[in-house]
Structure formats: C-alpha cells, structure tokens
Amino acid sequence: MSRRVMGCGLGVVLAIIMVISLVGWALSFLDISSPTRQLQPVPDNVPPAGAAEVPLIDVHAPGRTADKLTFWAEPLAEETGIPAAAVRAYGNAELIARDAWPTCNLRWNTLAGIGWVESRHGTYSGEYFNRSRINEEGFAEPKIIGIPLDGSPGFAAIPDTDGGLLDGDTEWDRAVGPMQFIPESWKRYGRDANGDGVADPHQIDDAALGAAHLLCVNGGDLATPEGWTRAIYSYNRSQEYLIDVRDAAGSYALNQPAR
C-alpha cells in the first residue's frame, strides 16, 4: 500500500512539473517583454521613423557582407529582441538597396517589421515542438514553409510554379523562408546577398534583400506615406498587415521589442 501511495504521489509531482514546463514553453511564444522594462508608446506615423543608422560597409566585397555589421547588430539585437543574424541581414539589405535603388529610401526597420509579422524573424515554423532558428550560415532550421495555397477559405489558389523546388510541394505553391516568399514572387525578386551565388529564400540575407527588391520596385519612394503604403500593400494587401508592420517597425525605431 505504501508503495502504491508513493507511486501516486510521484505521478502527481511529475504531472505538476509537466504542466509548469508546458506553461513556460507556451509563454515563450508570446514574446512577452521583461516586466521591468517600460516600453514606449509607438507612434502611428506612416512611414514609421527610421531606426538606428546602418554603418557604411562595402556591400560589393566578396563573401557574406552582412557579417561586417556584427559589431552594430549585436547591441541592437539585445535591445529589440531580433536575432542578431536577422538584424545584420536587414541592415545589409538597406545598404544594398541604397546602392541599387537610390530613390527608394528603404530603412532596415521596415524590413524588420515584415520579418516580425511573417516569421518572427525566422523563428516561427508553425511546429510548436520544433521551433525554427537561424543557423550560423543564415538559414532557417527547420525550413519555414507555409500552408498550401490551394484556394481554401481566405487563401488564394496558386498551382505549383517551381516543381516543388523551394517548398517541397509539386501540386500547390507555399510561402517559404523567413520573409515568406511564394516561389513565383521569388523568381522575380530573389537576390543573392550572402555571396554564395545562389538566391535562396530560406537564407536570411537573401530573403531580406529579396524583400527590399520587392518593396523598392513596387513602392517607389518609401520616405513618403504613399510610397511606403504602396510598398507594404505590394507585399500583402491588407490594412491589418500594414498596421502590424508599421507598429513593429515603429517599435524598432524606438530601440525596443515589437509587441
């Protein structure tokens, strides 16, 4: 009898530990800021204010130029909660865009706003027990692949355009990577930013530059309300999406996490 009681007690303790662990795991997805930090109100400006200036580097140098921004990105990552690899990628993309499309006036925190909404900067895969992360080479692991765009309620019907090369689906297209490009859009806007000669939407540097390309081509001058709005709508024509990106970008301009 005593053995049975001890076994029941142990089972209760283990159950409590399991509940506490599950609650802690669930809270990790809520991006709750430190309770000791008072976040500033985020203005509703369009376009949002620019965040910390990106130091000039040679974006035409061989190799992964984003790595040259490590010294700049690390303290920003600490303050904003954005993975340092993603901060480097967004800053690198801003500098390349400034060189390639000088009238675009894209700021890195707009890219960060999109990255936050699309995939929490390459960390949300949709699999609760297999959350993604950006590895040392800048690739999201595991790959971030959206649901099939098969015309289900609320979703477009986009038959496969890449033979499953990017999304593993030979019937329907799916959004892929940290910036959630559909394969057809990646064909038009994808760019190589990490110097390996391949434009890969699963690699954060490439994905950020592809997003910059899309925004600049479709938005025009993102320093104007009209241009910024047009650019964000070219990514996702939703008022709610625009507000979410604006608020995240505005929060990063204040050097604090998005909410």
UniProtKB/TrEMBL annotation:
This is Membrane-bound lytic murein transglycosylase B. Residues 172-218 form the Transglycosylase SLT domain. The keyword Transmembrane applies. The keyword Metal-binding does not apply. The chain crosses the membrane at residues 7-30. One of its GO terms (molecular function) is peptidoglycan lytic transglycosylase activity. Keywords: Membrane, Transmembrane, Transmembrane helix. CDD domains: Slt35-like. GO terms for biological process: peptidoglycan catabolic process.
